[in-house]
């Protein structure tokens, strides 16, 4: 077999990398935000991930060459491909697909072989993101998580199946196998714990406390009616109390399994004492190295393990005399071509997929361009959705949510129903058509923009900017709320505050929208794609950016 | 202990100054000993949990105000001598606003304020 | 009369924590119904809490307190078996008293 030079080198290096001996005596393996991707996929990392205020140029707000420089990753390598968008199309051809639970399972077993007693932690966003997950109520992922050997997990998108479903899985499917932890989910009446705030596990004789931190803004970013009897929030004071309780209960190591998003984790690490490491997710930032954060109690490592099953985080700790004295961290890319599929997991995946295979494999159209989603302002797959919304609903403007999940389709590849569902499979997929005033449009854009670019991370919700079709605007991320969005025009005409515009959208969070019950967005987009057959590379509608020249979160 | 008459003037006040005056608290000093424990972003503007804590000795009264609500003064609590100076309530917020806690301790007034954001929601990672 | 309150009172390390959930619409007087008519203000405006015979907290509320109000506070002293009594009065003169036992 003739392998491209880059791939052959990667294969040789992989054995050393994946099988490297452990350090210390306590190991924690971490996956997060796989978004129900059971099979290997392509996933392009962002070319725009801007930091503002004190976050300019700090991890995770680095892209492309600046990312490689910061983390000393050699350009042109397999790792460089996994962590950045550089030469994405070419390198995707060389290194192939990433992730897939069968390949991940093989890696987990290999890594665990060198690390007896290692815990496998799942940061959440596991049950949502594919057609099969949606149609089985997350059951395929629940069973896959058990098969993979997850020990402890926390939550975000899981909650969009409703609080009763989450409780059912936690109490029945996971009984005796997986602990769901969340110090920040409480009952809405008396504020009681819904899940255990933390669990204590012995790892090679060392008591390790794993505290759960669910996504704090679940009832805001997703429909509140799904979790009507629960409250969330960052709950920093309660986090400190939980850390103290874990230490009092004898924990020699305290880690937080977090779905805060990385900027929130970094701030929390600077203010809460006694945490050894925060293993983070939600913002889908694959960070090759942890950030060390100082706080009044000492230092805390903050990691983020990317998304879509691309990575396995491996944190090795040396614990002596009941304290952490050293660490090694690796974020291992899961290259499907370098890791044989685990037969048991592979068989499981094929089995759960079989009843839906015909529907998932339908070719809707062929894409001439690269279709991806990640980036602060727009992605080509989002643009495809926006174009479909405007065409099918005869709307002058379209909005599509700034989700950070969604896999990548290479140029020349068919767009299957499965690819489309990777972008859209949610439990509130309704298409909406609203008459909005210019003023309302501005308010929406400012509101979402502040969730992304507030200089205080605790006010950030960890998504990207709402994707916009039909409307041109400029954006100054460094301006205060209310002044970031300027120069709005539709068809070359300035948007008037008092004039109404026809706006199509999807994924509404209000309960009224559920009652109204619009068409699922994948049906609308599928109809549009089938009619088009061949789809030219979408022309990205991007805002004119201001105030961010030279920002390392922007590719040159 | 007789119940004080409901402070209509304070609850009807249309400016922060008027509300403070009606409570007998003109221009209270900002104090680090007055703390507001609340989420930075409200999950639901109709139900915003706010814990008001005073570290000041002889705290006898704690009040919670929402600057941008039509009725600014939300609640005022008179504490018995054995009652700890920390109360939790759930309040309504029509829009992003400063929440202000006013404390009367040893006859003097102190305050703290915290912005709580009320957002439209949607989107996510 | 309204629906009963849910009261939880627990004593730990010499401090009694009292949590109360009341059932009340707490109409602001700002809201309009489907026909466009203003729904009149209707809200709890006074709350009194007793631990045993002692009044430990008196509150005055306005319409900015949430529907189905929640109140939590702590009192030095008190022990299991003590009685907690909470009374509310609303702006229409309706009133309700409920009791609970400290556990
Ligand atoms: Mn995610
Ligand atoms: Mn998430």
TrEMBL record, chain C:
Pfam families: SoxZ (PF08770). It comes from the Bacteria. InterPro entries: Ig-like_fold (IPR013783), Ig_E-set (IPR014756), SoxZ (IPR030995), SoxZ_dom (IPR014880). Residues 8-100 form the Sulphur oxidation protein SoxZ domain. This is Thiosulfate oxidation carrier complex protein SoxZ.
């Amino acid at each position: 077999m003739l392998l491209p030079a880059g791939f052959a080198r990667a294969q040789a290096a992989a054995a050393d990398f994946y099988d490297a001996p452990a350090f210390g005596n306590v190991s924690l393996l971490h996956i997060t935000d796989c978004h129900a991707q059971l099979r290997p996929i392509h996933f392009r990392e962002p070319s725009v991930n801007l930091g503002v205020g004190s976050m300019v140029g700090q991890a995770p707000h680095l892209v492309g060459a600046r990312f490689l420089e910061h983390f000393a990753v050699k350009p042109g390598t397999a790792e460089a491909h996994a962590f950045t968008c550089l030469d994405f199309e070419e390198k995707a051809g060389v290194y192939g697909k990433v992730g897939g639970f069968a390949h991940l399972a093989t890696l987990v077993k290999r890594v665990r072989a060198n690390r007896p007693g290692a815990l496998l932690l799942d940061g959440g966003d596991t049950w949502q993101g594919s057609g099969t997950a949606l149609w089985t109520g997350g059951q395929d992922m629940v069973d896959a998580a058990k098969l993979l050997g997850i020990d402890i997990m926390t939550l975000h998108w899981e909650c969009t199946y409703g609080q009763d479903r989450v409780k059912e899985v936690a109490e029945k499917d996971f009984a005796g196998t997986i602990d769901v932890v969340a110090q920040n989910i409480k009952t809405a009446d008396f504020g009681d714990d819904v899940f255990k705030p933390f669990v204590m596990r012995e790892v090679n004789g060392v008591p390790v406390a794993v505290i759960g931190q669910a996504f704090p803004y679940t009832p805001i970013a997703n429909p509140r009616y799904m979790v009507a009897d629960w409250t969330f929030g960052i709950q920093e004071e309660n986090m400190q109390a939980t850390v103290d309780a874990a230490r009092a209960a004898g924990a020699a190591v305290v880690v937080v399994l977090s779905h805060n998003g990385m900027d929130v984790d970094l701030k929390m690490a600077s203010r809460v004492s006694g945490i050894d490491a925060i293993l983070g997710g939600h913002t889908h930032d694959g960070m090759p190295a942890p950030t060390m954060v100082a706080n009044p109690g000492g230092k805390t490592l903050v990691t983020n393990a990317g998304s879509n099953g691309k990575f396995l985080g491996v944190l090795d700790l040396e614990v002596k005399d009941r304290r952490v004295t050293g660490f090694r961290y690796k974020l291992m890319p899961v290259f499907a071509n370098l890791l044989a599929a685990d037969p048991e997991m592979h068989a499981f995946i094929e089995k759960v997929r079989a009843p839906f295979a015909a529907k998932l494999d339908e070719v809707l159209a062929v894409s001439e361009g690269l279709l991806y989603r990640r980036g602060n302002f727009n992605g080509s797959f989002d643009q495809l959705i926006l174009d479909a919304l405007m065409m099918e609903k005869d709307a002058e403007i379209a909005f599509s949510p700034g989700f950070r999940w969604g896999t990548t389709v290479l140029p020349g590849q068919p767009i299957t129903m499965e690819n489309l569902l990777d972008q859209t499979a949610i439990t509130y997929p309704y298409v909406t058509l609203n008459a909005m005033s210019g003023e309302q449009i501005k308010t929406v854009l400012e509101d979402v923009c502040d969730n992304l670019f507030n200089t205080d991370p605790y006010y950030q919700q960890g998504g990207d900017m709402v994707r916009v079709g039909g409307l041109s605007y400029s954006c100054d991320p460094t301006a205060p709320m209310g002044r970031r969005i300027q120069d709005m025009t539709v068809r070359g005409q300035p948007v008037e505050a008092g004039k109404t515009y026809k706006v199509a959208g999807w994924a509404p969070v209000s309960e009224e929208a559920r009652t109204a019950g619009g068409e699922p967005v994948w049906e609308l987009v599928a109809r549009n794609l089938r009619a088009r057959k061949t789809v030219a590379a979408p022309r990205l509608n991007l805002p004119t950016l201001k105030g961010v020249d030279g920002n390392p979160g922007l590719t040159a | 202990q007789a119940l004080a008459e409901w402070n209509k003037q304070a609850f009807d006040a249309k400016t922060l100054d008027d509300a403070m005056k009606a409570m007998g608290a003109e221009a209270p000093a900002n104090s680090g000993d007055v703390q507001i424990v609340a989420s930075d972003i409200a999950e639901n503007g109709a139900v915003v949990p706010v814990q008001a804590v005073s570290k000041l000795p002889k705290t006898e009264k704690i009040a919670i105000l929402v600057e941008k609500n039509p009725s600014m003064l939300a609640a005022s609590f008179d504490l018995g001598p054995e009652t700890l100076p920390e109360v939790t309530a759930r309040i309504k917020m029509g829009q992003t606003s400063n929440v202000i806690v006013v404390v009367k301790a040893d006859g003097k007034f102190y305050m703290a304020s915290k912005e709580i954001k009320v957002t439209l929601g949607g989107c996510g990672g | 009369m309204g629906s009963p309150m849910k009261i939880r009172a627990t004593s730990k390390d010499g401090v009694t924590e009292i949590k109360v959930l009341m059932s009340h619409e707490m109409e602001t007087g700002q809201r309009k119904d489907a026909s466009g008519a203003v729904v009149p203000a209707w809200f709890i405006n006074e709350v009194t809490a007793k631990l045993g015979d002692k009044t430990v907290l008196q509150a005055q509320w306005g319409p900015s307190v949430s529907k189905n109000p929640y109140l939590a506070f702590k009192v030095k002293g008190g022990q299991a078996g003590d009685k907690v009594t909470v009374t509310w009065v609303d702006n229409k003169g309706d009133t309700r008293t409920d009791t609970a036992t400290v556990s």
